Amino acid sequence: MMRTTFSMVCLLMFLSLTVPALDIGVGTADITPDVKAYRVPMAGYGARLGRPATGVHDPLEAKVLFLRDGAETSVLVCCDLRSITPEFKQAIAEQCADLKVDADHLFMAASHTHDGPSMYPEKFWQMQFGKYDPAIIGPMASAVAAAIHDAAKNAAPARVGFGEFEALGFTRNRRWGYDTEARKAAGETPLTEPVVWMLRVDGMDGACRALLVNFACHPTILDADNMLLSAEWPGVMRRELERLMPGATTLFTNGGEGDQSPDGATGESNFQQMEDFGTRLARLIAEKAKTIETKPDLSAHCARVLAELPPLAFPESAKAKHAAYAEAAIAALPRKAEIQMLRIGPAALVGLPGEPILAVAQAVRESVQAAGVERAVPVGLANDYSGYIVNEKEYAHGGYEVESRSYYGPGLGAFVAEQAGALAGTVAGKGN
Ligand SMILES: [Zn+2]
Description:
This protein is α/β, with parallel strands linked by helices. The protein has a domain at about 300-425. It has helices at about 1-20, 85-95, 125-130, 135-155, 180-185, 230-245, 270-290, 320, 325-330, 360-370, 390-395, 400-405, 410-425, and strands at about 20-30, 40-45, 55, 60-70, 70-80, 105-110, 115, 155-165, 170-175, 195-205, 210-215, 230, 250-255, 260, 295, 300-310, 335-345, 345-350, 355, 375-380, 390. Helix 2 (about 85-95) crosses helix 4, helix 6 packs across helix 7 (about 270-290) and helix 10 (about 360-370) runs parallel beside helix 13. The longest helix has 20 residues, at about 270-290. The structure holds zinc ion. Zinc ion binds near residues 112, 218 and 355.
């Protein structure tokens, strides 16, 4: 009898040591720069001519999802910013070295709000968005690092599940306006894919602790006239979701938003329209999130590649426009594309350092899924910024995204899809 009990205890101890476990933690940081203490020009619209923000409409936040799978720790940080700079990521990673969070395992994504701070050290970006005061970066990075440490402390065994649905009437393809007659003659239709993808994290008691939402759409309901910092519709959406789902931290990543603009928002002012858009979207998401079933013991793995980008090349039609900028652009633009993949169970977030148009995001998804990932979710504006990421067909149509913001020629879309597929091969199939 004694012997049986002893064996049972040994067996249970063995099982508890070998059963895989995924611990997840959450954190929130306020990253709103102090507009009274510093001059804070706003990034997003060149038409602001580098003028500083005059106040704060609503706070800018960074939301943290901390994942510990055995010895490997991965961290997703979603920020209310136009884009992420390598310097910002580096500053945060340095402050999280004690948690063994390195640049390969720190996945940073920006919402692409056009009402956040300009924080770009390069002259090229400062010529467009204004010269920033480097003093704003330290407090922002420290706030994010503190939220990561909070998340590490509250990390606990978690159940994870996934869901998606179509949110019709929220987006339009903004590139349809370029070359419309030629597009119609070629039998094209405006490409949209308004899929809201969700990752739900529950505690072992079934209570929702976090909801990550991916949706491809520009936060551009506010225009260049707005001089108040704002997280735009993603901020409204997150706050409404957190009101509807008490106890849950809500994170947002953008998708293949390069050609996707918000649509259907109603209200007299732009702020009212932003409220309407974010609130309606949040209410749909909250309903669908209830139906997501979660499972324990999924695996999480993060990997990254720094791929040599194609040579810098401005479109022929825009050479004159770029002449004044060319030298600064060449000095500023990245030479490597940071592509990152965070796989959680059967799904993988695929971080792309720029603004993929929807067709490119679809090509990336296909390429990653062909490499063995069940569900790939492209995330735009991740880790760095290399401009718009278009494909050959859209490059030929011209327009703003090509002439003003495409820096690596018509093959960039195909290049990132190929690189993402190759990276997927290294993270696919490692556990459930
Ligand atoms: Zn954009």
